[in-house]
Every structure is written in C-alpha cells, then in structure tokens.
C-alpha cells in the first residue's frame, strides 16, 4: 500500500476514537484463561449470596416498594438483561462476568409478585403480602445497606476496568480512518540487510548519525555501544545522545533539539536520527515541537520498537480506577522511579495511551519528514532461557592487589523477561509484541514500515548477546539497514516534492 500524497504544510492528525480491536468485538480473554472464568463465577456467587444477606434485613425488600411481613424472603428470577448477557460468548465464558455485573449493579426484579416464606410456602397476592404490619416502616434501605451495596459495585467496576485493560486502545492509530496509510518496506529492508552481511555498505558520510536511547539507558553502559563502534569503523560520524532517559518526553525533546543544532552548526551536516523504544518517541517529539527550527537540519527519523501510539504495559500499570489502587500501585511506581531509578514518573506516564493521544493531537509529525518505523515479535521458545544480554561492565580489583581493576561483563537474562512479557500480552490481548511494545502501536502513520520475520525482543536491538549467532544479523547491521532504507526514503520524498513544485 502506497503512502498518500502529502504537502509540506500537512500534518499527521490522529483520531481520538479508539475501538476494541479490528473487528470491534470483545477480546476473548476468558477463552484463553479458564481460571479467570472460575474466579469470576466464584465472585458472582459470593456477591449474590451477600446481596441476599443485605436483602434479608428486617423491613428491607429490594425491588419492592414495601417490606414483606414475618421477614418473608423474596424470590427473584433472572431478568431478560441477564439472559441476554449470558449469550455474549458462544461458549458461555464471558457470561459469568455479565452475571456478576448485573447482580451488583441493578436491584433484583420481582417476577409476578411471588414471595416465598422461610418455611417454603409461597404467596401469589403480592399486594396483600407486601403490606407492612407497621404503617410507619420505611421502604428505603438503611445507610449501612446502601454503603455495602455501593462498596460491592465499586469493587466490581474496578475489576471490570482491570480485566478490560488496554483492549480498546491497542492499535488506535491504525484504526484512525483519516490517518495516512503506511508503506511496507520489509522486502527492500531485507535486500539491504543481505548486502550489508556480504560487505556492501551504502551509508553516506554526508550526514551525521544520532542514536537516541530509550528508558533505563542510563543504567546500561552498553546501550547502542556496538552500533556506534561499528559505524565509527566505517568512518561515519555517529553520536549517542546523552539524555536523561527517565525524564519526560517534552524535556528530552528539548535536549535532542539542542543536540541536533549543535551537531549541525559544528559539522555543517544534516542529522539522521535513530531512536529506540522511548528514544524514538522523544526524537519524534523533538521534530514535532521544533520543526520550524529543525527542518533544514534533519534528514530523517527511524523509530525502532518505539511505542509511538502508546504502551499497554505503562497504561495498565498507571490507569486509575483499577484493583491496583487498593495496594497503591502508583505510589510504588513513583517510589521506584523517583527514589531508586532517580527519574520522573512522568516518563512512564507519557507512554500511556491517554497521554500519547493528547500529545499527538497537539504535536503531529510533519508530513514532509522521511520516517521509517520498525517493529518485531519476541520469541517465546524455551531457547530464550539460555540467552544472556551484556548490559554493562563491573570493575573489580585483581587478586594480586596490583591496584589495577579488571572489567567483568554484567549479563542479565533479558530475553527470558521479554519472552514472559510477550506471552502475557499474547494471552491477555491476543497481540504480538517484542515483550514491551505491541506491533500495531509501533507503526507510525505515513511511514515506511519494516516487519521482519526474525524473532527479536525489545532488548536485542541495543544490548549485545553474550554469545552471538553468526547465522543471523547483528544489532549494528540491523540499525545500518534501517538507516540505509531511511536515506532511500528521504531521496524519494525529496524527488516527489521537487516534482510537485514543478
């Protein structure tokens, strides 16, 4: 699919109307996780029992204007709404949740005025049976009963919001009808990558390459190091932006703007940016917010595994009104970011769907900017358990006490962690991801999209493995292929704009 024609003054304006998946149906969560269905059924039965306990209070008869004498228990039947909810799912899994909601969110109806006494007898005369012995008895529930019902309604609403999660938001940019279409550049990318692996390098030295790292890059000294080393060996000017990755998007956008201007005035060369993860979001924000000052200094932007549309992980953690509020999840994350990581919680908030929608509505990407977006799918095979990522070096004193320090590689099983997260997103939402970013949220509207078949997790792009596989491309080769494709996209776009002006 070819990208639509775009003029210099146009911008990519996203739609704010998200829907629950491409077909508009509810996610089949309970089909994938039977244990959740059992838990919901148990909660439904427990809530129904407790509601009956409240209904058995003296002088209270829910669904009736008057109380029954002799503490008669009212028999309720399933309403038509509950029966309809039972058929939401063909296998009945989702019906348990519907019954739970209808139990606590609506008063039980009276069917044909039938009441049953504790002894088992029934009365057909609802009017006579409902006549209270005490004319002054109130038909309104007591404050205690009202508070109890409200409490259960609040719990169920939080449970529903927690279970629903980000199902309505994932892929909202792709579903926006007015957004420009993407162009598939996977085939051309694979050709370029094959040439690079055979020693053919086409990156020009007429530009400066700026690599922008993502979240937590300040705590991993090897972030993008292998890529910069490879570029330097080819005689290319390459820099890694020294940003505070745990700062907000707008703060980092300002820092990146200063980087671009400093590089341009120092070298008189335009800048080609490659941002990974949040680094791609920060880079796109810099170009969106300061495009009038940067349009003559930037040659293009590549976003690798970036949550341009938002992240379900960040949204599910920080969304208000969930069950996590009872254990102060937000406070725990704030402590982690501010005290442990020495960052800002807003760095994570800026990656939620709500914040991304607000930001893109205010600062859309300029249409004349060449953009390449890249996303992958993490492997969930058992083999990832044996992979270790080299994230940093530790300096330790030598045993001979010579005063020299020995560098020891610090390795972490990031592949296993990414595989677990990818499996969670697959089970909960049915979405493919690299472990942190879903494929649909990483596609920038109007960009050339690369969708490789190779299984690569979120950390693979920037941290080298302890044992590299010579049969597959290295992270530096992938970055080189993406930037080479970006150069071609920029040349094609400039040709189209020149032709249009003529």
Automatic annotation (TrEMBL):
Signal peptide: none annotated. Residues 117-130 have a biased composition (Low complexity). Residues 1-27, 111-144 are annotated as: Disordered. Residues 8-27, 131-144 have a biased composition (Polar residues). SUPFAM superfamilies: alpha/beta-Hydrolases. This is Alpha/beta-Hydrolases superfamily protein.
């Amino acid at each position: 699919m070819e990208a639509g024609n775009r003029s210099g003054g146009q911008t990519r304006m996203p739609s704010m109307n998200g829907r629950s998946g491409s077909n508009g149906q509810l996610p089949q969560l309970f089909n994938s996780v039977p244990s959740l269905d059992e838990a919901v059924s148990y909660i439904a039965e427990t809530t129904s029992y407790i509601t009956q306990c409240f209904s058995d209070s003296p002088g209270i008869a829910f669904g009736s204007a008057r109380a029954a004498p002799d503490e008669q228990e009212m028999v309720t039947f399933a309403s038509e709404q509950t029966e309809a909810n039972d058929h939401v799912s063909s296998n009945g899994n989702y019906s348990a949740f519907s019954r739970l909601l209808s139990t606590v969110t609506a008063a039980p109806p009276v069917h044909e005025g039938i009441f049953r006494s504790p002894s088992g007898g029934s009365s057909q005369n609802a009017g006579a049976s409902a006549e209270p012995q005490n004319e002054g008895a109130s038909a309104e529930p007591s404050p205690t009963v009202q508070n109890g019902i409200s409490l259960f309604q609040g719990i169920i609403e939080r449970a529903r919001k927690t279970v629903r999660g980000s199902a309505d938001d994932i892929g909202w940019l792709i579903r926006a009808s007015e957004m420009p279409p993407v162009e598939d550049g996977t085939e051309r990318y694979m050709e370029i990558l094959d040439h690079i692996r055979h020693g053919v390098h086409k990156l020009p030295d007429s530009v400066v390459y700026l690599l922008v790292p993502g979240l937590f890059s300040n705590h991993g000294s090897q972030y993008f190091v292998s890529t910069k080393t490879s570029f330097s060996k080819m005689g290319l000017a390459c820099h890694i932006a020294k940003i505070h990755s745990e700062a907000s998007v707008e703060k980092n956008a300002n820092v990146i703007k200063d980087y671009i201007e400093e590089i341009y005035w120092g070298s008189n060369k335009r800048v080609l940016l490659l941002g990974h993860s949040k680094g791609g979001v920060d880079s796109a924000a810099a170009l969106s917010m300061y495009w009038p000052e940067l349009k003559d200094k930037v040659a293009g932007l590549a976003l690798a595994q970036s949550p341009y549309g938002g992240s379900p992980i960040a949204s599910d953690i920080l969304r208000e009104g969930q069950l996590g509020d009872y254990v102060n999840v937000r406070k725990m994350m704030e402590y982690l970011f501010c005290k442990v990581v020495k960052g800002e919680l807003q760095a994570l908030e800026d990656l939620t769907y709500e914040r991304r929608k607000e930001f893109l509505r205010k600062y859309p990407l300029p249409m004349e900017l060449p953009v390449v977006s890249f996303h992958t799918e993490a492997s969930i095979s058992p083999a990832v358990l044996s992979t270790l990522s080299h994230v940093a070096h530790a300096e330790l004193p030598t045993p001979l006490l010579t005063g020299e320090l020995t560098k020891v590689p610090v390795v972490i099983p990031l592949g296993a962690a990414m595989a677990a997260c990818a499996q969670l997103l697959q089970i909960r939402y049915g979405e493919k991801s690299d472990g942190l970013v879903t494929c649909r949220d990483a596609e920038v509207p109007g960009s050339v999209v690369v969708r490789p078949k190779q299984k690569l997790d979120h950390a693979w792009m920037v941290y080298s493995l302890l044992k590299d596989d010579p049969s597959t491309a290295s992270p530096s080769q992938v970055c080189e292929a993406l930037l080479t494709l970006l150069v071609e996209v920029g040349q094609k776009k400039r040709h189209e704009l020149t032709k249009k002006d003529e």
